[in-house]
Amino acid sequence: MNVRLSTPRRLATIAIALTMALPSLTACGDDEPSSSDPNAPVTLTWWHNGAQDPGKSVWQGIADEYSKAHPNVKFQVEPTQNEALKTKISVALQSPTPPNIFQQWGGGALATQVESGKLYDMTADTKDWISSMGASAQGWAVDGKQYGIPYDLHVVGFWYRKDLFEQAGIAAPPKTMTEFNDAVTKLKAKGITPVSLGGKDKWPDAFWWSYFAIRECSLDVLKNTVKSLKMDDACFVKAGEDLKKLIDSKPFQDAFLGTPAQQGAGSSAGLVANGKAAMELQGDWELPTMIPLTEDKDYAKKLSWFPFPEVEGGKGTPGTALGGGDGFSCSVKGGAACADFLKYIASTEVQTKLVTSNTATLPANPAAISAIQDPSLKTVQEALNKAPYIQVYFDQALPTSVGQALNDAIADFFAGKGSPQGIVDAFNKAVANK
After folding, report:
1. Same domain, residue pair 192 and 96
2. Cα 110 to Cα 97: distance, rounded to the nearest angstrom
């Protein structure tokens, strides 16, 4: 399949989903850019989540290369582990000194950040080139103003060990939940942990409930819920009931509630990378994330990927996927120099480097898609291309406080607290208190 031909739809579906929940906002605050001249001497503080190699070294190299071509621009690069970074950014945006450049996931969370008045409006700086990114860049805009730039796109599905599936006599990846449950039974019979889960970090839990909601709810319901902030359709309670059946089947490793998602060989990613579990529901980023978690240099050859199975009787549109993207925003004091650096990151040259170095998997710039070489990632890219709609992670699509409340309720549910209705109630309560 020529993935380039499907790129416009791939970009458009993510952009539509990301922009569904963006309210009309007026930024406040009196911060001023350090300079409107991109050639003025400046040191840019840059926070990103590439805390491990290859990302850590690659991002530093990109900063160094940009500085070499722009001697007036220096960088203070501060890599931070993903979960810690989200908290760090939230605190910084409430302070007088946020970083000049910081990781940005777009959607409703971006709209919430814009309210702080600390984000730089780079609309004028990007008008001559933003169209090269396709529709995906809309997910990093609020009220038609550009407040960030994506560098990669994501879709969530199952990474699985082909060797462990073969040992359990599973001939093909499951396409329905009935087939999935059958695969879990076969893996258990062989003494293999069917699914790893990083419950300590909560957001992996949310992937499960979100996918059940996507399979049980129609597209109209999903879109209207994110836009109106009203979760009143019975399909959301049904999603919780589906999740309860899954949890009761005990597909996860022991002590999954205390397992981190990506830190160490014993993380949920590490368990799959080291052949200790057969599957993990995670994003396309998981393949390079596993590099420092295993000594097996051939682990990628033992892995493949399949989309979340369809739920029999569900009202969801088949093929709809859960996803999003990564990008960067500039603080007001980062100004034009920061915006010019993000233009460099969005270039075909840098996007290709991100893909070939395993720092990014599915590039936001369509011109760099041809750099994808791993067979499994090509499968993910094709699934993303074919998806009729990409539902952005609910915690990202929704206002920050609402998304966090939803994640917390889902995590509590995995821990045996609450009910399917309770997850919905937590959402509605957070909206009322927003």
Report:
1. no
2. 18
**Whose structure tokens read 């709810």?**
217
Three-class SS state of 328: strand
Shared-domain flag, residues 24 and 148: yes
Task: Look up the pTM and report it.
Answer: 0.83
Query: DSSP label at 309?
Result: P
pLDDT in tens, 103-147: 999 888 898 899 899 999 999 999 999 999 988 888 899 999 999
Range(s) of the domain holding residue 426: 156-321+396-433
Residue tagged 């406080």 (tokens): 401
Rounded to an integer, what distance in angstroms lies between the CA atom of residue 140 and that of residue 126?
12
Query: What tokens does 301 get?
Result: 């050859």
Which residue carries 């930024």 as its tokens?
A: 27
Q: How far apart are CA 101 and CA 99, in angstroms?
A: 5
400: CATH: 3.40.190.10
Question: Which long-range CB contacts under 8 A does 51-56 form with residues at least 24 apart?
Answer: 51/79, 51/80, 51/81, 51/82, 52/291, 52/292, 53/291, 53/292, 54/288, 54/291, 54/357, 54/358, 54/359, 55/79, 55/288, 55/359
**Pairing status of strand 193-196 against strand 277-283:** parallel
Residues 268 and 198 in one domain: yes
Q: Are residues 83 and 175 in the same domain?
A: no
Q: Specify whether the CB–CB gap between 140 and 147 falls below 8 A.
A: yes
- Residues 20 and 132 placed together within one structural domain of the fold: yes
Instruction: Please tell me the total count of domains within the chain.
Output: 2
* CA gap 208, 214 in Å, rounded: 10
The 3-class SS string of 292-347 reads: HHCCCCCHHHHEEEECCCECCCCCCCCCCEEEEEEEEEEEHHHHHHHHHHHHHHCC
Verify that 345 and 412 share a domain, yes or no.
no
Q: Report pLDDT digits (tens) over 254-278.
A: 999 999 999 999 999 999 999 999 9
